[in-house]
Q: What sequence folds into this?
């Protein structure tokens, strides 16, 4: 039985407390299109497994979910390839920035985990190998498992990133040299950039990721997205690796599995209880939403509701 908590009141309290605090982050401008977003946006949406919904601010506005989408590509690749996927990418925290090249060289082209850029690129390579029309089939999978038919890529953002994604080009070429990319690098990167360009609102994110709070089933559509045991694994990798070199900090301060993106979005899961999405575009030095992290820390502190 879930205790009824007035989350909307708590969101209001948190945002009033933060209106006094400077939002110290900086918007991501290395993807030129992302630099056009209004930096003062703040959206929060929390959905419980028993269909209660609580929102605040810009929670219905679409934004670029960026690396949050890496959880969805991993989910599809795991369904298709099963445990063999873990021979191509690890499950350990990297302790390095999301776009770092350093570890890849001495670990022979096997990325530490599927959420750093290199790992997500390998997952895209797997999808290119296994699917006839990966871009369409990935989107179909996301639409079907979320129950939101309007979810889409933003070609503006994908093409903007493609033009200056020099590090991602370096990462994929290094892995290709080590034999861990099996397809044409441009085809794989095209899928990767489109994956990162997906747009959703905070509300849509909670509906899409709710399966991770509900044992692999989306309670809204009643569809099984993935098995219970793989739900456990995805949540574990989120807890350990969802925030790159700040994963420890997020677990320490928030205490939930989660995933961030450079669009300023964060999704966090309380298995068996709720899914929450926060959007605030300014990022801290590690590339995670500055305010988003603070909102979630305040939420789990005020409600005393983390997984620990
Ligand atoms: N598309 C971004 C990149 O490849 C994703 C990074 C992120 O959201 N952390 O750099």
A:
């Amino acid at each position: 039985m879930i205790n009824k908590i007035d989350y909307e009141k708590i969101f209001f309290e948190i945002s009033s407390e933060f209106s006094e605090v400077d939002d110290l982050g900086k918007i991501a401008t290395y993807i030129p299109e992302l630099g056009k977003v209004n930096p003062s946006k703040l959206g929060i949406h929390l959905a419980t497994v028993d269909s209660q919904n609580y929102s605040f601010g810009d929670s219905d506005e679409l934004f670029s979910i960026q690396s949050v989408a890496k959880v969805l590509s991993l989910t599809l690749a795991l369904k298709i390839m099963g445990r063999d996927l873990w021979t191509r990418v690890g499950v350990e925290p990297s302790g390095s920035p999301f776009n770092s090249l350093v570890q890849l060289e001495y670990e022979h082209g096997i990325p530490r985990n599927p959420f750093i850029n290199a790992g997500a690129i390998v997952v895209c390579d797997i999808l290119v190998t296994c699917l006839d029309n990966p871009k369409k089939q990935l989107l179909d999978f996301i639409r079907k498992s979320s129950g939101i038919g309007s979810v889409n890529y933003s070609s503006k953002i994908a093409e903007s990133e493609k033009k200056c994604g020099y590090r991602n080009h370096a990462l994929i070429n290094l892995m290709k040299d080590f034999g861990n990319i099996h397809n044409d690098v441009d085809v794989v990167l095209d899928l990767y950039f489109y994956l990162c360009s997906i747009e959703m609102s905070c509300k849509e994110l909670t509906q899409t990721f709710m399966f991770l709070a509900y044992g692999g089933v989306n309670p809204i559509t009643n569809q099984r997205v993935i098995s219970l045991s793989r739900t456990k694994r995805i949540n574990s990798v989120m807890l350990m690796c969802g925030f790159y070199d700040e994963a420890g900090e997020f677990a320490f301060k928030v205490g939930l599995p989660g995933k961030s993106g450079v669009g300023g979005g964060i999704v966090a899961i309380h298995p068996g209880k709720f899914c929450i999405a926060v959007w605030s575009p300014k990022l801290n030095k590690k590339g995670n939403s500055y305010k988003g992290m603070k909102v979630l820390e305040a939420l789990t502190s005020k409600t005393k509701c983390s997984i620990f």
In short: The CA atoms of residues 7 and 13 lie 10 Å apart. The mean pLDDT is 95. The first strand starts at residue 43 and ends at 48. The first helix runs from residue 7 to 19.
